[in-house]
TrEMBL record:
Protein's UniProt name: Response regulatory domain-containing protein
Segments forming domain Response regulatory: 21-136
Taxonomic superkingdom: Eukaryota
Annotated Pfam families: Response_reg
Record flagged with keyword Cell inner membrane: no
PANTHER family registered for this protein in UniProt: RESPONSE REGULATOR RECEIVER DOMAIN PROTEIN, TWO-COMPONENT RESPONSE REGULATOR
An annotated GO BP: phosphorelay signal transduction system
SMART domains from the UniProt entry: REC (SM00448)
Residues where 4-aspartylphosphate is found: D71
Species of provenance: Populus trichocarpa (Western balsam poplar)
Sorted UniProt keywords: Phosphoprotein
Length: 138
């Protein structure tokens, strides 16, 4: 049994039916809150990390997630570096880069770090649902 932590203290009535866990990695408190609300409204478990290093440390400590929503620009460790480290550790989770930058070249660099996909902020509930379908098919 993997160690999964549920944030927010909300009741999850889909326990057993849907055990997807999502890690929201973002240095912006508001973005983390919005993304957490979207994830929990889908009945999924969510955990948060404030930067890439926290995300890597969670995995070093044995945590695993079905889906990781990874911000690009963060202090201490940015999204591309964290994504490279996670892939080097053998993490197979679906990792979606989430960025406010619209330049294709920036997305390309981030994707090459090991992302499955890169999208613009803020995420929509439909996008998160589609990522879950993809990770379910893996
Ligand atoms: Mg940021």
């Amino acid at each position: 049994m993997r160690n999964k932590v549920m944030a927010g203290g909300e009741e999850n009535n889909n326990e057993g039916k849907n055990s997807f866990t999502v890690l929201v990695v973002d240095d912006d408190t508001v973005v983390r809150m919005v993304h957490r609300m979207l994830v929990t409204s889908l009945g999924l478990k969510v955990q948060e990390a404030k930067n890439g290093k926290e995300a890597v440390d969670l995995h070093i400590n044995g945590a695993s997630f079905d889906l990781i929503l990874m911000d690009m620009e963060m202090p201490i460790m940015n999204g591309p570096t964290a994504t490279r480290e996670l892939r080097a550790m053998g993490v197979k989770s679906t990792i979606i880069g989430v960025t406010s930058c619209t330049f294709e070249s920036v997305h390309k660099d981030f994707i090459e770090a090991g992302l499955d996909h890169c999208v613009a902020k803020p995420l929509t509930i439909a996008q998160i649902a589609s990522f879950l379908l993809k990770s379910n098919n893996n």
